[in-house]
Design brief:
25% of the residues are buried. A hairpin with a 2-residue loop joins strand 3 and strand 4. 11% of the residues lie in helices and 45% in strands. It has 2 helices and 9 strands.
Length: 159
């Protein structure tokens, strides 16, 4: 069984930009956002994935991800997933031996920038880059599933 262990942070400034080693445009939508589980469709560049995630326990949750044909993912995003879709550019930024993923949101979530880092274990020490702001790992408002239903542009008290 796959397990995702990650920490998320709001991004305080653009200091990460010069260190980014790659980027990809991401479109994702949700087939299900039932409490305790989500089913997501994502395209990232020329690749596409179907992902099932379980209920979060601390920083960890079950995760199952499968590559699917790009054309099928595009159909699911355009026809089966309710709008708005999550639109973002994902940047990979190495820092202190880990790869951080910085998501710069567009569309209905424009203005939001989140950095996350996947860990091998929940108690793994993490050296935070200077551009990492407030931690939001356990704040459900910063999950993509929540943002798909409650876009950042509608928040009155952001961040």
């Amino acid at each position: 069984m796959g397990v995702e262990i990650e920490r998320k942070f709001l991004v305080a400034d653009a200091g990460w930009r010069g260190a980014a080693v790659s980027s990809a445009v991401v479109r994702q939508g949700y087939l299900s956002t039932t409490p305790g589980r989500t089913v997501r469709v994502r395209t990232m560049g020329a690749e596409a994935f179907l992902t099932i995630k379980g209920r979060r326990t601390g920083l960890a949750r079950a995760e199952f991800e499968y590559a699917i044909p790009l054309a099928e993912a595009a159909y699911m995003l355009d026809v089966l997933c309710p709008p708005p879709l999550i639109e973002k550019t994902r940047y990979r930024v190495p820092y202190a031996g880990l790869i951080w993923e910085v998501d710069e949101f567009a569309g209905a979530n424009a203005g939001l920038v989140i950095a996350e880092v996947e860990l091998a274990r929940a108690d793994q020490p993490v050296e935070l880059p200077e551009w990492a702001g407030r931690e939001v790992s356990t704040d459900h408002r910063y999950t993509n599933a929540y943002l798909a239903q409650h876009p950042y542009e509608t928040w009155k008290d952001a961040p």
